[in-house]
Specification:
about 425 residues, mainly alpha, about 65% helix, globular, ARM-type_fold
């Protein structure tokens, strides 16, 4: 084989056969367009009229060269090197659309992910599962993605059900299994099989109060939360007859999880209940829940919780979530949220849409806005239509000069300072007493 170019020497082993440190994927490895979600692409004020031109073709070639090196390093003998390579690929896949690049190497990537999940330890398995999610997000729904899931699905299920595997690895694989199945499968049998696998995990939390080994139950809670959320995501794409069966099976059991000591489990259970009520009322406008009074009492207690033994941050988060859950269950109301990305707006107006958005946001992180703009699969999921293409003239009209931006920021800073000073001034609260 020909020797690698000098520029790629960072990917080779150093003297004595010791692995060198992997240079992680950084912001500089992507073009200005790629990292728009980090630099404020959606804000017109982020554009500047001056600055050096970027050779996008050369930048793309350099990026692909580095990614090829990372793919090769996923087969390295060093676990630390493999994990670093996986994390770098995750950063790249979440921040840029790389469909053509991945299409040519999808089987190589799939084999590397499978190997890392099977033979790696906890951190490496988590990184590989996260990369598998992003691989399916990049590929979208299609034959190629189905092939990936056919290879990785059984491996993920095996880890999820393996009681000897680390909780973190099982948790990551449960999330990955739900997301990949949501994206890929058109096979209803595979959908039901995956949901059953996840059900077998989170339903164990129903027995938590009866479990004599409290430490073990608490230890497994993070896994139960991930399995419940992944199952809920898949429920949103089930046929209505299956949805009815699942509602009958779980609606009376889920309220028991609202008493869990873990905040994340309480929130996951509450949001799942809100979603189930939403689906139930879609299938039957006259849907009636027998224990409504008891349930609303529990939800109201969580929405107004003032227990001193809980952290203030946790209490604020819990009260905020359960106020919305209570409104959904009691009043059939949902507080509409707006998400901005580029020149577009998306309104989240139901629990199904909220659950889907939060799931992909957790996987994509800061790359969520970029993918909402450019990823055909995500745009199809949220019914956004084809990507909006902005020409140079439109972009130019969105530009704001540095001087104008400076004036705006200065005025905003002064107004904010005055408002805060007024609120902090104790004399503002002093009144006259007669």
């Amino acid at each position: 084989m020909p020797k690698p170019k000098k520029r790629g020497s960072n990917h080779q082993r150093g003297a004595g056969g010791q692995p060198r440190n992997v240079q992680p994927f950084s912001d500089e490895d992507a073009s200005v367009e790629t990292m728009s979600h980090c630099s404020g692409f959606s804000d017109p004020a982020s554009f500047t009229e001056d600055g050096p031109e970027v050779d996008e073709e050369a930048t793309q070639e350099d990026l692909e060269y580095k990614l090829k090196g990372f793919i090769d390093l996923t087969l390295d003998k060093s676990a630390k090197t493999r994990q670093a390579a996986l994390e770098s690929l995750k950063s790249a896949f979440s921040s840029k659309i790389l469909y053509e690049f991945i299409m040519e190497r999808r089987m190589t990537l799939t084999d590397s992910i499978e190997r890392c999940i099977k033979k790696g330890k906890s951190d490496e398995q988590c990184a590989a599962a996260g990369l598998a999610c992003l691989l399916c997000v990049q590929m979208g729904s299609g034959i190629e993605s189905e092939e990936i899931f056919k290879t990785l699905g059984p491996v993920l299920k095996k880890i999820v059900c393996d009681g000897t595997a680390s909780i973190q690895a099982r948790q990551a694989c449960a999330t990955c299994l739900g997301i990949c199945c949501f994206i890929v499968t058109d096979d209803i049998t595979e959908l039901y099989s995956t949901m059953e696998c996840l059900e077998n995990i989170f339903t164990k939390a129903y027995q938590r109060d009866r479990d004599t080994n409290g430490v073990s139950s608490t230890h497994n809670t993070v896994l139960h939360v991930s399995a419940l959320l992944a199952w809920t995501l898949l429920l949103t794409i089930c046929p209505m007859n299956e949805v009815k069966k699942k509602i009958e099976m779980h609606l009376h059991k889920l309220p028991s999880l609202l008493s869990c000591d873990d905040l994340n489990m309480r929130i996951a259970a509450g949001e799942t209940l809100a979603l189930l009520f939403e689906l139930a009322r879609e299938t039957d406008a006259d849907f009636f829940y027998e224990d409504m009074d008891l349930l609303t009492e529990k939800l109201r207690a969580l929405a107004t919780d003032g227990n001193k033994h809980r952290a203030k941050v946790d209490k604020r988060k819990q009260r905020s979530v359960f106020r919305d859950v209570l409104r959904a269950v009691e009043e059939r109301d949902f507080p509409t949220e707006m998400v901005k990305f580029g020149p577009e707006r998306m309104y989240i107006d139901c629990w199904v849409k909220k659950q889907t958005y939060e799931t992909f946001k957790e996987i994509l992180g800061s790359g969520m806005q970029y993918h909402l703009q450019s990823n055909d699969f995500l745009r199809n999921v949220f019914e956004l239509g084809p990507p909006v293409m902005l020409d140079a003239a439109t972009l130019k009209t969105m530009k704001i000069s540095r001087f104008e931006r400076h004036l705006y920021n200065s005025a905003a800073f002064k107004a904010r300072t005055k408002a805060r000073s007024k609120c902090r001034d104790k004399r503002a609260d002093v009144g006259e007493f007669f």
